[in-house]
Design goal:
The chain is α/β, with parallel strands linked by helices. The chain has one domain: Rossmann fold, CATH 3.40.50. The chain has 4 helices and 6 strands; from the N terminus they run βαβαβαβαββ. The chain has a 6-stranded mixed beta sheet with strand order 3-2-4-1-5-6. The longest helix has 17 residues. It is globular. It starts with a strand and ends in a 5-residue tail after the last strand.
Length: 153
């Protein structure tokens, strides 16, 4: 199974009392989302299931891909790596899954899948970590397929 984790692009700063879910992308964030969406659009299988946080910044990031997606509360800010993996149906999904979400859950998911421990890994805004789960001799292996930032595509 391929699990592609895409951190939302740069959003406007949060101010005390603001609703975190309503923060939109900055102009730079829109450019980041467009660049990464261009690369992802060329790489993703047509069968890829796209799951997105309900936060506006994640929704705007995903829209740049110009594919249908499903919004899930399990991917909202402050959710866990376990919630993300459950939503993605890791490692049993038959199709690739792209998750557009937030730190620290994305980084915790990468840390857990790569090391077996829920340790935070840093993912830059607009960045993608592409993991591939495969079975070898009855053991699930996780392979880092790609790690990119918008500046590299």
């Amino acid at each position: 199974m391929d699990l592609i984790l895409w951190r939302h692009a740069e959003a406007v700063e949060s101010h005390e009392g603001d609703d975190d879910l309503t923060r939109p992308l900055t102009a730079k964030g829109e450019r980041q989302a467009d660049r990464m969406a261009g690369w992802l659009g060329r790489q993703l299988a047509a069968t890829t299931r796209v799951l997105v946080s309900p936060a506006i910044r994640a929704q705007q990031t995903a829209r740049a891909l110009e594919r249908k997606f499903k919004t899930l509360d399990e991917l909202a800010p402050e959710q866990t790596a376990q919630a993300l993996l459950h939503a993605a149906r890791w490692p049993d999904a038959r199709e690739p899954v792209l998750v557009v979400g937030h730190q620290p859950a994305l980084g915790m998911t990468v840390g857990y899948l790569m090391t077996g421990e829920t340790k935070p890994w840093s993912i830059r805004k607009g960045g993608v970590i592409w993991l591939r789960g495969r079975e070898r001799d009855g053991v699930l292996q996780v392979v880092l397929h790609a790690a990119l930032t918008p500046e590299l595509v």
